[in-house]
Amino acid sequence: MGEKVVAGTFDLSDRQRYRRKLQQCLAGLGRLLAEKRFDRPKNMMGLEIELNLAGADGMPRMMNGEVLDRIASRDFQTELGMFNLEVNIAPHRLEGRVFDQLAEELHTSLGYAHRKAAELDAGIVMGGLLPTIGPNDLVSANLSEVDRYVLLNDQIVAARGEDFTLDIDGVEHLTCTSTSIAPEAACTSVQLHLQVTPARFAQVWNAAQAIAPVQIAVGANAPFLFGKELWRESRPPLFQQATDTRPPELQAQGVRPRTWFGERWVESAYELFEENLRFFPALLPICDEEDPLRVLDDGGIPRLQELVLHNGTVYRWNRPVYGLADGVPHLRVENRVLPAGPTVNDVVANAAFYYGMVRALAEESRPVWARMPFEVAAENFDAACRHGIDAELMWPRPGRGGGMTRVPAVKLVRDELLPLAAAGLEAWNVEAADRDFYLGIIEGRCRRKVNGASWQVEAFHRAMESGLGREAALAAVTRRYTELMHQGDPVHTWPSWSVG
């Protein structure tokens, strides 16, 4: 992606040329869609997890380069912060015992990485926000030593023209400023990919948007930032504010943020790529030599590099993805909603719940997005981030009477969405043993009203009640969380009374 380009060298002509290339790419995508040149999905799913590095004291360790050298596996790579890694699991077909296979591979990969990190007095921690991360950790000097991260930081800072303001009003109120995008690095997530046909893309994307609040409610795992208890899932407001290229006057004018939930249901993938071009100026105007329309005229398939690069700088919670595999184009929905952790089994349960729900909802004759205003879905997302497992969500009433009703998220999941997810997994030909085990973890969280965020919050308050100061309590919670994470039992079974 042109990592050798030096930040600050883009001038107006670069941006004009890039915009022309983006327009050509969009036209090329339109032709590919019209000519039905896309690969037929093979029921393939993909999984990526962002990870934290922390020492035995629970504090972040800025050493991903050294740890990656020890791991020496192409499955692991850098992420934005020096205390981050990412693990990529090879695509799997959604069928049979796929979730047990995923769990086994993740246990093996993360166990190996943890042992290698331990050789350097560090360890792997899966969590949406490391509770011990502090403002002094999230500075530009701690960005990973990769040209594209430095370039992205410089371009976002230049576009904003002033310091970034973090202002999150939750259980407690956090206000601070940053001179770089480094606070974004605190957000560690799980990305779930699903290949779809162009004809099915809108149904899958709309379904994923509708259930994103439910994913957050049952999977929230990021209640602390900079020593303060904020939202049960504080990643979304942090990510939005840490990547916001809009100075306050543009925010007041209603200019859209680069991290956003969206504003409407869609009818095609093309609409989302077109929105990218219409609403979001280029951050990395790096042009490929390919002429996508000429490639199409010659009977080939274009890479659409500019479109792909630009799409990667628009941080939708459900993102459209264009890619090539063996020279054949395909579309994916990338679900970026979930935080990492707490355990491998929790991550896989979240994945099973998502893939089951999205399959079932996308195939309903009266789909949920036809019965729910988009604004309600966006409000649900905000409520789920704020309240997690205790959230109440607006949802269409069962039957043909219509209308919306407010329902506790745990009741909605247990009464309506778990049966739908089970039916969706059955439609994927997932074996009953996998289906029942992993959806059982989701049911257990709802029955006990415990997820990663609620466990962390209760453990923190118990640690404070035992006499520990705030920083010591957060460190103790992080150490105990890490210990239980590596033991592997799902979070709803963890003992909350012992923080070590």
The number of helices is: 17
- The radius of gyration is 22 Å
Q: Termini separation (Å)?
A: 45 Å
Low-confidence stretches: 1-7
Number of strands: 15
Shape: globular
Mean pLDDT: 94
Major sheet, described briefly?
7 strands, antiparallel
Q: Helix proportion of residues, in percent? A: 40-55%
What amount of the residues lies in strands? 15-25%
Q: Which class best fits the helix and strand makeup?
A: alpha+beta
Description:
This protein is of the alpha+beta class. The chain has 17 helices and 15 strands. Strands 1, 2, 3, 4, 7, 12 and 13 form a seven-stranded antiparallel sheet that branches. Strands 5-6 form a two-stranded antiparallel sheet. Strands 8-9 form a two-stranded antiparallel ribbon. Strand 12 and strand 13 form a beta hairpin.
How would you sum up this structure in a few lines?
The chain has 500 residues and is an alpha+beta fold. Helix content is 46%, strand content 16%. It has 17 helices and 15 strands.
List keywords for this structure.
single chain, 500 residues, alpha+beta, 7-stranded antiparallel sheet, 15 strands, 16% strand, globular, disordered N terminus
